[in-house]
Fold each of these.
Amino acid sequence: MNRTNEEQEKAIAYYDKISGIYDYISNCYYKKSRDYAIKELGIKKGQTILNLPCGTGVNFKFFQRKLYNSGLIIGIDLSNGMLDQAKRKTKKNEWTNVDLILENATKIDQKWLEQYSEKKGQVKIDAVFCDLGLSGLPDWRNIIDNMISILNPNGRIVILDWYLDKPSLRGKFVKWIGKGEVDRPIWQYLKTKVSDFKVDDSFNRGGVFVASGTKKNKNTKYNYGIFS
Ligand SMILES: C[S@@+](CC[C@H](N)C(=O)[O-])C[C@H]1O[C@@H](n2cnc3c(N)ncnc32)[C@H](O)[C@@H]1O
């Protein structure tokens, strides 16, 4: 299910516009799911976390509770407005381990990481967090594949997003407010790609899920579990 360029441009213009008030909505509505998702990332001091899309950087203060300004937070988003808010937070908190990049999520792949490492010194990604992004991003399956491909062996991927399998008024509203789709089988796809898969789809009256997994490596045993 590809989104047209026009839809993408409209979504970015929309996020530019609402960037100043975005945190008020997000902090209230996604508190429980975000707390849970961040635990699932299993962040340790000194690690590198990629947040795609990072939006206004709502997650950064939670990452920092584990990182203590060590390691690296790479935040990627295509909206200048949203990134400006993330920059503001970074400056205000004097975080020195945050790198904010204006880029299309579809461009983040192994080649991108190689080029990034050439500039910054070798960068290894320990965890990827895709929150409220894949429901609106084009080529979302490809993005999941790319995120897993750039992870370190045994790296963690966590996705927080919407999934409503039946069309409903609520679904239409979420689609309108979030400028994304609500019926993409995102966690179902992730399940086929990682080990230690886990999903909790009980957030926000069953509309929001948090799914997580570990990058497969040759020595990993498969363990698919569902908590819902
Ligand atoms: C609902 S917000 C989520 C932001 C953040 N992850 C959070 O949970 O608060 C969706 C974000 O996706 C970004 N976005 C949309 N299309 C994108 C693309 N193709 N590449 C990168 N970011 C994109 C928007 O600019 C917006 O910041």
Amino acid sequence: MKKVAFLGGGKIGKAMAEHVMENKSADIAFVYDPFIKDTSICGAKVVSKLDAGMLEGLDLVVECATAEVLKEYAEMALAFCDVMPFSMTAFRDDAWRECVEKAAAAHGTSVYLPHGAILGLDGISDGQSVLTEVSIETIKNPKSLGREDAVRTVVYEGPTREAAGLYPRNVNVHAAVALAGIGFDRTHSKIISDPDVNTNTHLIHLAGQGIDFTIRVSSFSEGGVSGKYVPLSACGSLDRVLGGFGFRFV
Ligand SMILES: NC(=O)c1ccc[n+]([C@@H]2O[C@H](COP(=O)([O-])OP(=O)(O)OC[C@H]3O[C@@H](n4cnc5c(N)ncnc54)[C@H](O)[C@@H]3O)[C@@H](O)[C@H]2O)c1
């Protein structure tokens, strides 16, 4: 059975740990999260410190904490095993991203990029060579953005690279699309704060030579940064990475 560890035991981490425990689909070595007081979540051991020795023998590290955590541990983890990151805004840093790619190549390990809050990241990446225009509009309740707007407000419009720096916990979808598509400078981001919505909605438009896609995803916001769909999506991505038998959507 494959051995996994989670960095972050919040909404996404807990959902995946529970899923793995229920389905007995992997051994959970530990959940690294210094802010969790309990010694275990869903039967998985919680640890508050992480060092390279703890990564020996693992097959997969899943980061579901923050962009800083991903930046701190991705290269170290890739020396031992594959990595699946959720804090995609970290990839706005090109120099670091290149180091991560080099580490994976040097150690023969992989970075599995999950579709997270949206659909079709694989399809966007497949069309990368012909894409010329990509834009994403996200509409969230001000609370999700850490704001207190009383009326609908456009809080950002411009390149995705800056959006990912300003709202690292809220525009992972923008970062993921930029990474799969035409990059952080050519992808156009718009973030709207709307006190009348209780959903996280992403409207993505991609166009290029002979292709034109519109993707609209809306997911109920249960508070926090992730909507209702993300834990389901995360468990699906984890299952695909862990492998298995029978019918498999890829
Ligand atoms: N890729 C996507 O589409 C997508 C969608 C939603 C959320 N996200 C991102 O995924 C990550 C997790 O989301 P979530 O909803 O589970 O968030 P969450 O706030 O519920 O959980 C994050 C967890 O990380 C822990 N954490 C914080 N700092 C840490 C540190 N230094 N070391 C270890 N653990 C630390 C927190 O204690 C918390 O338990 C966030 O970065 C979020 O922005 C990505």
